[in-house]
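[agent] plan:
  1. take the single chain provided in the ticket
  2. run structure prediction with default settings
  3. attach structure tokens to the ticket
  4. add a short note for the reviewer (M.T.)
[agent] executing step 1
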Amino acid sequence: MTQIENIAGYAPARSVKEARFGKRFYYWLGASGERYLHTVFPMDADFHCPGANLMVVRHEPNGERFVLFVGHVGQLSPRQIDHLRIYQGANEQHFHLMATGDTAVEKIATDLSRRHLPDEDADRQPRHSPRKSLPAVFFTNISF
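[agent] step 2 finished; step 3 output follows
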């Protein structure tokens, strides 16, 4: 794990690291220290999994990743996704598929948000990540 990945709370999943999945699976750390396994897809992949946690990420050529949105599938409109992609450089969708029930999904989204998105109350300086929930899109037709 690089220093950048460690600071960001982003790490390859060791169980699949040597498998032929490439960098398809990653752990993201929450503010609580809990690790959440995510499946990574490019922004243009269609994926339909209502109720899953979603992180929209900008992956820089140097390996650095910026979290632009944390929430759940169905919370962003197609227009909001286009905005994140075009104006903020979003190029990856990270899905956590292991939460069961709305309460668990919300708890995980809150934990990840607290670690990876700026706290508006702590400082009023805007940073690279939007803090507010953005409201709905469903994905279909996954391509590998």
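[agent] step 4 note for reviewer: The mean pLDDT is 76.
[agent] ticket updated
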